[in-house]
Amino acid sequence: MTELKIPAAGDAVSEVQLVEWIAEDGASVVEGQVIYSIESDKSVLDVESPATGKLTILEKAGEIFSIGHLIGKID
Question: What CA–CA distance (Å, rounded) separates 1 from 3?
Fold first, then answer.
């Protein structure tokens, strides 16, 4: 299992908004595929899957999370 955690979006950023899940819950994803987007005060970042497998979404888009917060997993 690979945990999906909110990545750092800049040196001074401590929280970001999970803007959108591009891949759906239960979808098969491949390493390098863009699976979600986050937004900080300064930019929007598309985040790629770190692994290949089945995506399980644990948090809803539209919420604000701290860097390192667990939002999903890939089995």
Answer: 7
